[in-house]
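Agenda item 2: pyridoxal-5'-phosphate complex prediction
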Amino acid sequence: MSQSRILLCLAHMSGNEMKYIEEAFADNWVVPLGPNVDGFEHDLEEFVNSREGASPLDKRVVALSAGTAAIHLGLIQLGVGPGDEVLCQSFTFSASANPVTYQGATPVFVDSEPDTWNMSPELLEQAILDRKAKTGRYPKAIIIVYLYGMPAKIDELIAIADKYGIPVLEDAAEALGSRYRGQYCGTFGRYGALSFNGNKMITTSGGGALIVPSDKEKKEVMFYATQAREPFPYYQHEKIGYNYRMSNICAGIGRGQMTILEEHIAHHRHVHQLYAEAFADMDGITLHSNPEEKFDANYWLCNILIDKDTTGFDYEELRQYLDKAGIESRPLWKPMHLQPVFAACPAYVNGVSEDLFGRGLCLPAGPWVGDREVEYIVETIKSLYRR
Ligand SMILES: Cc1ncc(COP(=O)(O)O)c(C=O)c1O
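Presented output:
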């Protein structure tokens, strides 16, 4: 793909991908299973299980067709069904919440806190108690999201979930490589979902994975991901299944991408550092950054908040101005409790995500964004001040 515009986050190949794809063609493994799928899962397991200053975890990973499929299968594993409620971070992409509705359950949205922009522990507890009071039952699961790769206040959230015995599914679609207390996001809850969509930290063109606690659960998830086919010589089905497994070709891309994952993460952090230095003396622009040392974002996208009273422009004026200069930027996610499709769902809000949505902009941060591009983006923003 030719690139004259500076895009938010564009796929970037290591050069090793074709080797794995060619192997798949040579061996005719052009199906949704095979050595690349096994190899990619193995590489991901090694990666997510490692911890700073602690012995490795023992999680398993199932490669799937999408991050959305991973969230869906996580909810199935948690037994979410018609009539259930699932607490879900409101400030997110719709794919966090859509699978709740696939199961005939209702998403109940919980707003964010201002430090990480992720689920507010305080509101989470309020929501749990209020749902219990209103429906007589606790919600069936909690979906926490690490938006833009920023870890949430995980200890506080998990402590509340444990207090009420509600399992946590982490939507780590944007957070591959982000750590909290030296441990990778996606490994704290019962399940963790990853995405390898074209714009993510690494890509398989389209794809995802579910991090699960054991081999037994890995087998269960694989069963549902391959049409719930029972072990008979003929096709026997006793449950509803899905066609959610990753293809051996996509997994070949994934294996190649794993050889460059650390480099991608380091690059995103470098770009964030460049923005941090540039915005330090620009009044009215605040870069979203790790609030404390235990948070270690992958900085999948770099985000700013704009104080119009100081800058004289708002996020939409800046977005259009950058667009004319050949720079892609995007408003922050519109909270789910403001989305027409979820208008009937209960929501516990504090104004944080609405405020962020009204003031924020995502700036380019991917592997194709180098020092020169950041300089150009920053200079372009500066020139809007002068107008
Ligand atoms: C927060 C979040 N959750 C879930 C997803 C879904 O992932 P996928 O596009 O791989 O289905 C995405 C990305 O697309 C995302 O950004």
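Discussion summary: The mean pLDDT is 96.
Owner for follow-up: CH.
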